[in-house]
Amino acid sequence: MELAGEVDCLRNIALSHLGQNAGCLVPAENRVQSSTCQLPTQKTNELNSICREELPLTDSGASQNSTNPLVQKQAAWLGRSFYPFRKALVRGLAIVMPSLLTIVLFLWAWSIIDTYVLQPAEAIARYVIVWSIADIRDDREIAPEVDAVRRIGGVGSAERLQGLSATPSTWVTSEGTTMVKVGQQWIPRPVFDFVSVDPGDPPPQSANSWYHRYVRLEFLPRNLVIPAFLSAFLLTLYLLGRFIAVGIGRMIWGWIESLIVRIPVISTVYGAVKQVTDFAFGDNELDFTRIVAVEYPRKGVWSMGFVTGDSFMDVQNAAGEACINVLMPTSPMPATGFVICVPKNQAVDLNITIDQAIQFCASCGVVVPVHQKIKSTIDVGKVIRSRPMLPDHVSGDDSVSHE
Q1: Model confidence over 294-352: pLDDT tens digits?
Q2: Could you tell me which residues come within 8 angstroms of residue 154 by beta carbon, excluding any fewer than 6 positions away?
Q3: Long-range contact pairs involving 135-139 (C-beta distance under 8 Å, separation at least 24)
């Protein structure tokens, strides 16, 4: 009898924990409180701790919602309602993102050109123009004329002296040029009036900065600088290419490169950059007309590559047959990769162009040429309908039904 009582108490405690922790899994009439047990306090506490370890605390509301058919139908309806919006959003991103990324790429390239090429060139031109047209005079150049007018006087002397007390101070020189005082120096009145309309932020403080602002607004506006810069840049590239194409130009350029490669640190960077630029813009045409597929990195796994030419003679002698060099591009940057040497008879020629191969690699295999796509003949609906339906209480192959 004592053993039967302990068993009943154990059942009551377990049902009590199930009712408290698992929501509506246990009917209310079966939720017997452990206080009705006649077990010793120590044994009751041990049984309670075992139940707590074996029956972890769960959210009763979540359990009820997960088993409520109405909640399940509402969740399914919400998922179906949101799917068209999500699909349309993804399609919109797929349409817009290529254009946006192209614009961002060109803006990034232009910012680099503007920062490291255009602005330095513009600054050099501005300094040259300011040096050639600047008419800046110091107080010691104006002071003798002011003293002479004060001593001798003459026609208009009162108006000339009155300009010194104006804000800003002005002075008409003996040549008839009206000068305006800026700091401790004087600049012509037309320059001062022109820059005063758009002084910029921060405004110029010295006479030299006033002239720089004047030259930038009058002679070097951006709507004229950018077309002139692009034209001059393209013309320079053309003339440089024609010059190096002739014998003396190639000889001079070779002498300059021989000096560069003797500099310890610069020679390493220059050599790597030169290899990339020669590969992209050089006159030596690589045999990129062949796009092949080879079994790499292991047999049964096919990778796409570009044929760059015949392999080393030593490799061909070791293989006992003709071998080719294949450039294996990496996704999503086809410009980088590595070269492998494979037998020519193990390379499968692909009927795609170089542009299509680059698009395939850059898209990580998403963009496949239309003529290379395999049309599926499998009726997906028939396959789904032919699948056997599992009972509700079976959730997988290894699951068993629970009574």
Answers
A1: 999 889 999 999 998 888 999 999 999 999 999 999 888 777 789 999 999 999 999 99
A2: none
A3: 135/177, 135/187, 135/188, 135/191, 136/185, 136/186, 136/187, 136/207, 136/208, 136/211, 137/179, 137/185, 137/186, 138/184, 138/185, 138/186, 139/184, 139/185, 139/186
For 246-261, the pLDDT digits (tens) are 778 888 888 888 888 8
**Single-letter code of the amino acid located at 381:** G
Cα distance from N-terminal residue to C-terminal residue, the chain: 30
Coil, helix or strand at residue 351: coil
Tokens 């049984």, residue located: 47
The DSSP secondary-structure symbol of 116 reads: I
- The mean pLDDT of 45-68, rounded to a whole number, is 50
Dist. CA 328–CA 296, nearest whole Å: 9
Bridge partner residues of 227 (DSSP): none
Among residues 39, 50, 29, 31, which one has the least CA distance to residue 9? 39
Confidence of residue 368 (pLDDT cuts 50, 70, 90): confident
Single-letter amino acid code for the residue at 25: L
Cα 139 to the center of its chain, rounded Å? 55
State the pLDDT at residue 125: 92
Please say whether the beta carbons of 147 and 135 come within 8 A. Answer: no
* Separation between Cα atoms, residue 15 and residue 27, nearest integer Å: 9
